[in-house]
Structure of Secreted protein:
Amino acid sequence: MHTVSLAAALAALSSTMVMADSPDPSPAVSTSLSGNGCPQGSASGSDTSFTFTRFSANAADGSTRQTLNCEAHSNVSGSGAGWQVAVSTVDAKGHVTLDPGARLDYYTTTFFSQNADVSGTTHGVITNNGATTLDTPITIHQVIPANKLVYSPCSTSSGYAGISNVNFRIALSNSNGAANAQIYNEQLSYTWRRC
């Protein structure tokens, strides 16, 4: 298995909230999805973990580039007053077939609907620099750096923290031959702080 990691180790996929300092009980997260990587009826799962059936990009010749995305829109509530939340990690699993010279770029952009001008983007890449086709499962673990964490507005007395938007995008390109990338599932984790 080919593993692409932006941190030393994978976060536990069963954990959806980072508990170093967080509201008790855990707030509710209600999520909807949009994007050409997850058209209606092609994704399922909980509010922080998703499975995809049509998140697949193809670059069939040396001049082709294809970009797909799936954006999670999460309504975070029930925290009580005085909290801010931010997406801290994005984990995704899938499969790539990359002919020599092909590459897969992947991006995570986070922002809150209440302040869409403030966003943070992380980027990673898988490149086939070899002489033979790379055909392998992949695990992507993106940790949002501290300087790119985008926090919600301070939660109100009703516990409403805002609408978090997480856009996970792949861009497949190649210089010759063919390339394919599929994303099967994605997991979001959050971190909290007092405000």
